[in-house]
Amino acid sequence: MTARRVRVLRVIARLNIGGPAIQAITLTQRLDSLGYETTLVRGAESESEGTMDHLADALGVHPLRVSALRRDPGPGDLMALIALMRTIRRGRPQIVHTHAAKAGTLGRLAALLVPARRRPVLVHTFHGHSLSGYFSSRRQRVFLAIERALAARTDRLIAVSAEVRDELVALGVAGSERFEVIELGFDLRPFQVSTGERSRRGRALRTELGVPADARVVTLIARLVPIKRVDRFLRVAAALADRDDVWFVVVGDGELGTQLRALERPPELAARVIWAGFRRDIPDVCFASDVVVLTSDNEGTPVSLIEAQAAGTPVVSTRVGGVASVVRDGITGFIVDTDDEPGVARAITRLLDDQPLAARFGSAGAEHARRFSLDMLVERIDGLYQRLLRERR
What we know:
This protein is 43% helix and 16% strand. It is an alpha/beta fold.
């Protein structure tokens, strides 16, 4: 415990379902006992994104809402910037830590614009990046220029994996020496249960979803947005349509939900694709699954793969972003090139047909997932903060 509490302003554009929101909430709560007084500022998520408000409530975290702070650029950005400047001026934080692109832009800009005898230490976490694969080439150039300019004024940049760091360095955001690689950390205890409880809860969820007890279940856990390429998952499912013992479950929702659910599928497959929507019982989803799949075009650190492995479920993923840091290819799961849909289907089939292999992958995955511990994350963030504060003094 430090002699005086260190004031931290943590900024995130939205507490939608996903890893960045979990990190922002849990860090706010866990750092309190180490001498930090954190104000968590959050924007507004759209209805289709879901929310992690239930986690904040459970942990006793009460974020300050700035309604004008939203993911997409718009006229509300100026109002959000003014609100952040006002919050910084009132709270006089010693550290401003921003998460993801939009909050990173407005939060750091606000800290730089507020007149002060000594500006706060600036830290920004890249939970992945949106500098490729999201926008037109013209908008990407604009956003890249903004990231480069802000990076030059930021005391420390955090990347959630070495792969994300290397991509950002290759894009010219900043040199590798400016980055600290700090992997995400989670409370994985809900996924670590006895074999009997795992089996019981998995069967119960299958019954709830209408999946036959003897079926094989392949699950995708993702937001239904373009970058997650749920269409690719559905094509892989269609390639396995002749296997009438295999069911496919999609957990999540988003802007493409209506469109994806309306896509035409082989008649023999249609009844075996279940759209489960957002769920809070992700441990049970993993227990009910034989394989958890991710078919994205871009990822930072995919939380669904960490959680699946923690639950002892083997995984298959496309080779993007920080996946290689999360999945040990050929040991806890399979990683396949993004354009190799037949390869994804073959990897799934191999795990479904080779039970000893799937069991070995599941056991190795449960052990491997321990590296993504919340205690380790908190320890490394605390160490970084203390080091930066010493350097500033």
